[in-house]
Amino acid sequence: MSYDKDNIFAKILRGEIPCDKVYEDDQILAFNDIGPQAPVHVLVIPKGAYVSQDDFNANASDAEIAGLWRAVSKIAGELGVAEPGYRTIQNTGSDGGQEVPHFHVHICGGRKLGRMIAP
Ligand code: 5GP
Protein backbone atom coordinates (compact mmCIF):
# COMPACT_ATOMS: atom_id res chain seq x y z
CA MET A 1 0.00 0.00 0.00
CA SER A 2 1.46 3.35 -0.99
CA TYR A 3 1.32 6.32 1.35
CA ASP A 4 -1.71 8.59 0.94
CA LYS A 5 -0.40 12.09 1.52
CA ASP A 6 -3.96 13.33 2.05
CA ASN A 7 -4.68 11.13 5.07
CA ILE A 8 -5.89 12.99 8.15
CA PHE A 9 -2.63 12.69 10.09
CA ALA A 10 -0.61 13.97 7.13
CA LYS A 11 -2.90 17.02 7.13
CA ILE A 12 -2.33 17.46 10.88
CA LEU A 13 1.44 17.25 10.34
CA ARG A 14 1.23 19.93 7.61
CA GLY A 15 -0.85 22.15 9.92
CA GLU A 16 -3.87 22.00 7.62
CA ILE A 17 -6.02 20.53 10.42
CA PRO A 18 -5.59 21.48 14.08
CA CYS A 19 -4.74 19.03 16.83
CA ASP A 20 -4.52 19.16 20.61
CA LYS A 21 -0.75 18.68 20.81
CA VAL A 22 0.82 17.09 23.87
CA TYR A 23 4.40 16.55 22.60
CA GLU A 24 6.59 17.35 19.62
CA ASP A 25 10.21 16.88 18.68
CA ASP A 26 12.05 16.79 15.36
CA GLN A 27 10.75 13.29 14.52
CA ILE A 28 7.53 12.87 16.50
CA LEU A 29 4.16 14.54 17.04
CA ALA A 30 1.70 13.44 19.75
CA PHE A 31 -1.83 14.73 20.25
CA ASN A 32 -5.05 13.82 21.99
CA ASP A 33 -7.34 11.41 20.14
CA ILE A 34 -10.49 13.15 18.90
CA GLY A 35 -12.62 10.23 20.15
CA PRO A 36 -10.97 9.16 23.40
CA GLN A 37 -11.58 5.58 24.55
CA ALA A 38 -10.03 6.19 27.99
CA PRO A 39 -9.37 9.21 30.25
CA VAL A 40 -5.93 9.44 28.63
CA HIS A 41 -5.89 8.64 24.91
CA VAL A 42 -2.99 10.08 22.96
CA LEU A 43 -1.77 9.29 19.46
CA VAL A 44 1.98 9.28 18.82
CA ILE A 45 2.98 9.56 15.17
CA PRO A 46 6.28 9.75 13.32
CA LYS A 47 6.71 12.81 11.09
CA GLY A 48 7.93 10.52 8.31
CA ALA A 49 5.46 9.11 5.78
CA TYR A 50 4.83 5.53 6.96
CA VAL A 51 1.54 3.76 6.26
CA SER A 52 1.66 1.26 9.10
CA GLN A 53 3.69 -0.32 11.85
CA ASP A 54 5.09 -2.81 9.35
CA ASP A 55 6.05 -0.03 6.91
CA PHE A 56 7.69 1.89 9.78
CA ASN A 57 9.61 -1.13 11.08
CA ALA A 58 10.79 -2.05 7.57
CA ASN A 59 11.69 1.37 6.23
CA ALA A 60 12.31 3.89 9.02
CA SER A 61 15.85 4.50 10.20
CA ASP A 62 17.08 3.02 13.47
CA ALA A 63 17.10 6.56 14.87
CA GLU A 64 13.45 7.10 13.92
CA ILE A 65 12.40 3.79 15.47
CA ALA A 66 14.31 4.39 18.68
CA GLY A 67 13.09 7.98 18.81
CA LEU A 68 9.46 6.97 18.51
CA TRP A 69 9.58 4.35 21.26
CA ARG A 70 11.59 6.55 23.59
CA ALA A 71 9.04 9.31 22.99
CA VAL A 72 6.17 6.93 23.85
CA SER A 73 7.66 6.26 27.28
CA LYS A 74 8.53 9.92 27.80
CA ILE A 75 4.97 10.98 26.93
CA ALA A 76 3.45 8.29 29.17
CA GLY A 77 5.56 9.62 32.01
CA GLU A 78 4.58 13.22 31.31
CA LEU A 79 0.90 12.24 31.19
CA GLY A 80 1.18 10.55 34.58
CA VAL A 81 0.19 7.06 33.41
CA ALA A 82 3.57 5.29 33.52
CA GLU A 83 2.47 4.34 37.02
CA PRO A 84 -0.07 2.73 37.56
CA GLY A 85 0.19 1.67 33.95
CA TYR A 86 -1.17 2.14 30.46
CA ARG A 87 -1.66 0.35 27.16
CA THR A 88 -0.14 0.99 23.76
CA ILE A 89 -2.03 -0.15 20.66
CA GLN A 90 -0.85 -0.21 17.07
CA ASN A 91 -3.70 -1.26 14.81
CA THR A 92 -2.41 -2.64 11.52
CA GLY A 93 -4.45 -3.06 8.35
CA SER A 94 -8.06 -4.02 7.84
CA ASP A 95 -8.41 -6.90 10.31
CA GLY A 96 -6.37 -4.90 12.82
CA GLY A 97 -8.91 -2.09 12.68
CA GLN A 98 -6.55 0.57 11.32
CA GLU A 99 -8.60 3.53 10.09
CA VAL A 100 -5.91 6.12 9.45
CA PRO A 101 -3.14 5.00 7.07
CA HIS A 102 -0.31 6.85 8.81
CA PHE A 103 1.47 4.79 11.47
CA HIS A 104 0.41 5.74 14.98
CA VAL A 105 0.74 4.43 18.50
CA HIS A 106 -2.24 4.83 20.81
CA ILE A 107 -1.38 5.51 24.47
CA CYS A 108 -4.44 4.70 26.59
CA GLY A 109 -4.69 4.94 30.36
CA GLY A 110 -6.15 6.73 33.31
CA ARG A 111 -8.37 3.83 34.38
CA LYS A 112 -8.19 0.05 34.62
CA LEU A 113 -8.44 -1.08 31.00
CA GLY A 114 -9.06 -4.77 31.57
CA ARG A 115 -7.07 -7.56 30.02
CA MET A 116 -7.79 -6.98 26.35
CA ILE A 117 -9.84 -4.89 23.94
CA ALA A 118 -13.54 -5.72 23.56
CA PRO A 119 -14.67 -6.97 20.13
P1 5GP B 1 -6.87 3.57 14.14
O1 5GP B 1 -8.21 2.90 14.13
O2 5GP B 1 -6.41 3.94 12.75
O3 5GP B 1 -5.83 2.79 14.90
O4 5GP B 1 -7.05 4.88 14.99
C1 5GP B 1 -7.28 6.14 14.42
C2 5GP B 1 -7.59 7.07 15.56
O5 5GP B 1 -7.52 8.39 15.05
C3 5GP B 1 -8.99 6.90 16.16
O6 5GP B 1 -8.87 6.59 17.54
C4 5GP B 1 -9.68 8.24 15.89
O7 5GP B 1 -10.50 8.66 16.95
C5 5GP B 1 -8.50 9.16 15.67
N1 5GP B 1 -8.77 10.29 14.79
C6 5GP B 1 -9.37 10.24 13.56
N2 5GP B 1 -9.41 11.46 13.01
C7 5GP B 1 -8.83 12.30 13.90
C8 5GP B 1 -8.58 13.70 13.89
O8 5GP B 1 -8.91 14.43 12.96
N3 5GP B 1 -7.97 14.23 14.97
C9 5GP B 1 -7.58 13.44 16.04
N4 5GP B 1 -6.96 14.07 17.06
N5 5GP B 1 -7.79 12.12 16.08
C10 5GP B 1 -8.42 11.55 15.02
Primary descriptors:
binds guanosine-5'-monophosphate, 4 helices, alpha+beta, 21% strand, HIT family, subunit A
Small molecules bound: guanosine-5'-monophosphate
Radius of gyration: 14 Å
List the uncertain runs.
Answer: none
* Pattern of helices and strands: HEEEHHEHE
What's the number of domains?
A: 1
Derived from helix and strand composition plus strand pairing, the structural class reads: alpha+beta
The CATH class is: Alpha Beta
Question: How confident is the prediction overall: mean pLDDT?
Answer: 96
Q: Which percent range fits the helix content?
A: 25-40%
Basic shape: globular
The number of distinct β-strands equals 5
Strand order of the largest sheet: 1-2-3-5-4
The main β sheet shows up as: 5 strands, antiparallel
- CATH superfamily, called what? HIT-like
The end-to-end distance, rounded to whole angstroms, is: 26 Å
CATH fold-level label: HIT family, subunit A
Number of H- or I-type helical stretches: 4
CATH A-level architecture = 2-Layer Sandwich
Tell me the strand percentage band: 15-25%
